[in-house]
Amino acid sequence: MARTPIIIGNWKMHMLVGEALELARSVRNVLGGISGVEAGVAPPLTALHAVAKQEHDSKLIVAAQNCHFEAQGAFTGEVSVKMIADTGASHVIVGHSERRQIFGESDELVGKKVTAVLAGGLTPVLCIGETLAQREAKQTFDVVARQLQRGLAGVSANNAKRVIVAYEPVWAIGTGKVATTAQAQEVHAFLRGQLGEHYDAGVADAVRIQYGGSVKPDNVKGLMAQPDIDGALVGGASLNAESFVAILKYRQ
Ligand code: PGA
Asked: Is residue 200 part of a domain?
């Protein structure tokens, strides 16, 4: 099955509302000339509604960067999946390594969020990846297998097909150190194998696995040429229309 590649810009804690609207507009304006790839942006929560509203009729996907797993209640500062859906956003990044490392999110918590996003009818982007210490201790496969399994705990095969997985080696995020295409492909192929084992060949074949970690215009082409790399989650290089559009045009 041909998987349509998907490239999402994760703006993290950047962009005021006006800046976000302008950047989203600049990206959307070029999408007509780019085929065969889905494009998305993940604005900060304060700009999510405005960007989703502006892009309501466009091809640009709008994603939230996080959510809470409960539907409602006394959870000061948190935002439910229903609230995110209410903004018009369609995707939710879950378990980004910054959430795991800085805010202490566990594999189990991330799994609950994935379940909540699917139950709310939105698409989760489940982020997983090993730290440098784990890679050096040769634990990469154990770590990503565990994160994948717990992230998808209780998710049916049908729902699993809707999940986007983002493999983001922590040592490559924001460091300028991109994994080599061979390092990335090796882990992506392993993850697809895991999906085949936990579910079946149909799920393994359907799930898109993005690579993330210092993706730039000059390295995206090599990464996207790998058979198991189906897109990118882009941080720093997505904050500027020129570099993000250059990434989206990786085929041209
Ligand atoms: P980076 O971030 O492209 O700045 O390395 C990627 C990410 O954190 O999703």
From this structure: yes
Distance 43 CA to ligand 1 centre (A): 14
Query: Residue 214 is part of which domain span?
Result: 6-11+61-70+78-240
Structure tokens at 156: 């049916």
Residues noted as catalytic: 96, 168
Q: How far apart are CA 113 and CA 94, in angstroms?
A: 7
Ligand 1 binding pocket (C-beta < 6 A) is 10, 168, 173-174, 212-215, 233-237
What are 26-67's pLDDT values in tens digits? 999 999 999 999 999 999 999 999 999 999 999 999 999 999
> Count of domains in the chain?
1
- Whole-number Å distance, alpha carbon 174 to ligand 1 midpoint, is 5
Give how far Cα 196 sits from Cα of 19, 200, 201, Å.
42, 4, 5
Instruction: Kindly state whether residue 178 falls inside one of the protein's structural domains.
Output: yes
